[in-house]
Write a structure and sequence with these properties.
Strand content: under 5%
Structural class: mainly alpha
Oligomer: single chain
Helix content: 55-70%
Largest sheet: 2 strands, antiparallel
Radius of gyration: 41 Å
Distance between the termini: 59 Å
Strand order of the largest sheet: 1-2
């Protein structure tokens, strides 16, 4: 059989493969018109995909944030375990279940009296039987030398009525005054019994209403100076005046005791340490907060729109590729189409494999490595959603492109540019090129590379 007859079986009698498109050749303008139609169809598909993607954008964002949430939860658990070991010297076995459930310990400081009073308002039957007397003096509110000095100041013989410590001493009952005089005259070291007796005297003084409201107290000072400035001798504090005015409107024994304690502390401010709120540490177990942060009002909307757009493009990319392929295929020979039909599905499968590998297996070790710098630097991870979205898209893209390497190598071998022997002899150069490319296709850390 002649060469022409062989060719005729594939392309018709008297026609060679080079003549295949002779009757369908178009001008440059006609090619541009076909390209315009293809691009319009691609844009229509992208618009349809974007509409669908925006509908699922919220769910897509949840899926995209899942690796980050898992990594933050592991980081928080690890930090919580380190704190527990540092506090107790070992990891309490009872804490394992709470940590696995995503709860970590946090130390808070609460006012126990306020907590009990709040619980009493919620359930009077259960908490009503608990006696609560907040804002009392305790032994740690006084030093031993300061305590003796206070007693000596109050019990001194001088009866200058303008001296506030002596006025406070006059408000005490006789037995309480005897306790103060005994301590003031005792030169021996104070024992615990004497300290407890003095603290009890001061707590009885806290119940007095004369310390704040008696006419004798107000008449001691001229009207030109405010009550607080004259009494305490320091800069005015608006809270003290507000508390006194509240007591004048309606008497509250707790507020009265609180204000009296503050006044006594200021009267003897040189002999006792400043008062702090009565707070006690309490450990609570809170759920790990793995939510990403947004730094602007419009950022969540832009992230939502970006996620919808990316999802839409991903959904309709087969149709977009089909439109582009229909335009390109018209100018290809049959053997060229055969290569495309062979390599395109494999390329898509490799690309998706790279994406899945990055999402399910790579994100976790990469994030754990990066978070080690947070732990060593004492910086709490609060990732910004915009930065994370770029990270979660860029890293899988690098893996998807990298997974095309076997296909590229096969293609170059099939078209005769590189042989198997060349691959084997140039492997050192190939590794160097791979390292260089991985520097640009992955985040700037050695684990991703």
């Amino acid at each position: 059989m002649s060469t022409q007859s062989k060719s005729s079986k594939g392309f018709g009698a008297g026609r060679t493969e080079s003549d295949l498109f002779e009757e369908t050749r178009m001008s440059f303008g006609e090619h541009l018109e076909e390209l315009r139609k293809v691009l319009i169809k691609c844009l229509i598909w992208i618009a349809i995909g974007t509409a669908i993607g925006l509908y699922f954008a919220d769910r897509v964002l949840i899926i995209l944030q899942r690796p980050l949430n898992v990594a933050i939860a592991k980081y928080e658990k690890g930090q919580a375990k380190n704190k527990l070991v540092k506090e107790f010297g070992w990891l309490p076995p009872e804490s394992d279940e709470w940590l696995e459930e995503g709860r970590i310990p946090q130390k808070l400081y609460v006012d126990p009296a306020e907590m009990v009073l709040g619980l009493r308002e919620v359930n009077e039957d259960f908490f009503g039987g608990i006696e609560v007397r907040p804002y009392q003096f305790r032994s740690e509110h006084f030093t031993k030398d300061g305590l003796r000095s206070i007693c000596q100041t109050m019990a001194e013989a001088k009866t200058d009525s303008t001296r506030m410590p002596h006025f406070v001493f006059g408000l005490l009952a006789e037995d309480s005054q005897a306790v103060v005089r005994k301590i003031a005259s005792n030169s021996n070291p104070l024992d615990e019994q004497q300290i407890s007796a003095f603290v009890e005297v001061m707590n009885l003084l806290l119940e007095s209403r004369q310390l704040i409201t008696s006419p004798e107290l107000n008449s001691l000072f001229g009207s030109e100076m405010s009550w607080y400035d004259t009494f305490v001798g320091t800069e005015a504090h608006p809270g003290l005046d507000a508390m006194r005015q509240a007591l004048e409107k309606e008497f509250d024994p707790i507020l009265n005791r609180r204000l009296n304690r503050l006044i006594i502390n200021r009267v003897f401010r040189t002999q006792m340490p400043a008062l702090k709120m009565d707070l006690v540490p309490i450990v609570v177990w809170r759920e790990i907060d793995t939510r990403s942060q947004s730094l602007s009002i419009t950022e969540p909307f832009m992230i939502w729109f970006k996620a919808g757009l990316i999802t839409g493009v991903f959904l309709v990319c087969p149709m977009v590729f089909y439109q582009i392929w229909s335009f390109v295929a018209a100018g290809l020979y049959r053997h060229e189409k055969k290569y495309v039909h062979f390599f395109l599905p494999i390329s898509l499968a490799l690309f998706l494999s790279g994406l899945l590998l990055a999402y399910f297996f790579v994100f976790d070790p990469v994030l754990q490595f990066l978070f080690t710098f947070n732990a060593s630097s004492g910086i709490a991870p609060q990732p910004r959603i915009n930065d994370w979205l770029g990270f979660v898209l860029f890293l899988p893209l690098g893996f998807g492109v990298a997974f095309q390497l076997p296909l590229v190598m096969l293609f170059l071998n099939r078209i005769g540019i590189l042989s198997v022997e060349a691959y084997l002899s140039k492997w050192r150069i190939a590794i160097m090129v791979i390292f260089v490319l991985s520097m640009f296709l992955t985040p700037a850390d050695p684990i991703s590379m």
